[in-house]
Description:
By secondary structure, the protein is of the alpha/beta class.
Amino acid sequence: MILGAIPGATPDKWAARWRERFPDHALEVKYYDDAGQLTRISEGTVNIGYVRFREHEVEVDTDVYHRVLLYREDPVVCAAADHWIAAAEESVDAAELAGETFLDSAQMLQDWAAGSADVAGAERMALEVAASGAGVVVLPNSVARMLSRKDVVIRSITGTAGYETGLAWLREQDSELIQEFIGIARGRKAGSPRTASSLQKSSPSPKRKAPEQKTRSRPPARAAKPGRTRKPRRR
């Protein structure tokens, strides 16, 4: 099974757990840019893949794909170390960035890095331009931290949509193996019902014999003492 990861994703822990639980089923992790991930899934380049979109911007066709949301990522703005943004302690409001020149890493991917084997190459180039003071770039927090450099500052943005990150796969390709991986990604423990045992046919359990019911024997009636006769009851 091939997992398509994206910049900023950290599937190493999941992969390690998978290999522990399912050593007979190989898992290969390959990294790609965010763009084109659904196409890779539909074409069979990967069996399951990370997908990340801005909130409320992209609707995944649920008739074609299964999609499981994993977490929400905050958007960050990256700027030159001497930019006014550096004066902000932690975050800036989206309204404060209205007059800034935004560098579009997606456009750079089309113009410069199309077909390049360098994952996140467009984002690296955008950060290099931002470091020169020619503009700012907005990225998911995980990507900005992964590509951080000393001459660029990173600040969170408030008042704007974040990123929804999850896993997607084709409905027609759904399988026990994929469901097991989703379980690992969502923190399912090894001892839960849907683990390795679900990949094997469970043998029928032997029928238990019904426990024998013990009947209580009544104690024998006491014999009347000799010489004594019972008096008839008065009515």
